[in-house]
Amino acid sequence: MTILVAGGAGYIGSHTAKELAREGFDVLVFDDLSSGRREHVRGRPFLQGDLMDREAVQAAFRGRTIEAVFHFAGLIQVGESYADPRKYYTHNLLSTLNLLDAMLEAGVSKLIFSSSAAVYGAPRETPIPESHPLDPANPYGRTKAMIERILEDYDRAYGLRSISLRYFNAAGADPDGEMGETHDPETHLVPNILKSLLGTAPRLGVFGGDFPTPDGTAIRDYIHVTDLAAAHVLALKALLRGGASAAVNLGTNTGCSVLEVIRRAEAVTGRPVPYDIRPRRKGDVAILLASKEKAEELLGWKPALSSLETIIATAWSWHRRNG
What we know:
about 325 residues, alpha/beta, Rossmann fold, 2 domains, 7-stranded parallel β-sheet, 3-stranded mixed β-sheet, 14 strands, about 40% helix, globular
């Protein structure tokens, strides 16, 4: 069966497309290449198009029997969403509505949605369960929460079943070295550490040294991107078995501080990481950890590569080869 992967040339989308192909699914990648990389498609069937272009989205479904859709495409920069919320509400919501309308017109009723832990806002309990109230602290997170609400209504009204996967901190690279993490601008900690070591990025900035944590830096839940991709395939299989719509965290239930990540990176690479402590960023919280019980119970998911050493080692290998 054919699976349409919107945003399949991006970081998480490309790893998931590889995992789908490995599991025997036919993959069709749809991406506008605004942030994705053509080489990450790895020779799979590819359509270059923009989800904001309603006709291009509808054309992707014509003449094809598509069984399910993965939706990775969207704007993801938290800081930019503060500065330009209009851009985020317009793009993330309209692109999703265009995709959902094309699915309904084509009779496609299964969707895996790339959501985010940003839907929770400041945690009221840790680790965060899926039952935690949704109170996003920034426009980016609000768009993800709004889309989840839209999907609930589309299930109720049209029978379009979906699983929204709420990511915590994706990191690492394909163990085979085929894909890795690169954004412009790059805001994620692990690639910025490694790029600073390679001289392809400026000295690392650590945002906040006065959080109420043991070393004063923020604690986050890091998950290897290949484990994340495996969870997406398990979510698809759950829908194919007739499973109900759901929202599921993807994290490890454990956390590391920014300084701990830096020390592990130094151990893996054998190089000292140059960094400065800078003021906190707006909206950052001290600790974000995922409760992973629902992913284990509903999807049968068990992370296999998400030790911080493996995350950093795979990312370091990819960044050294790709500059």
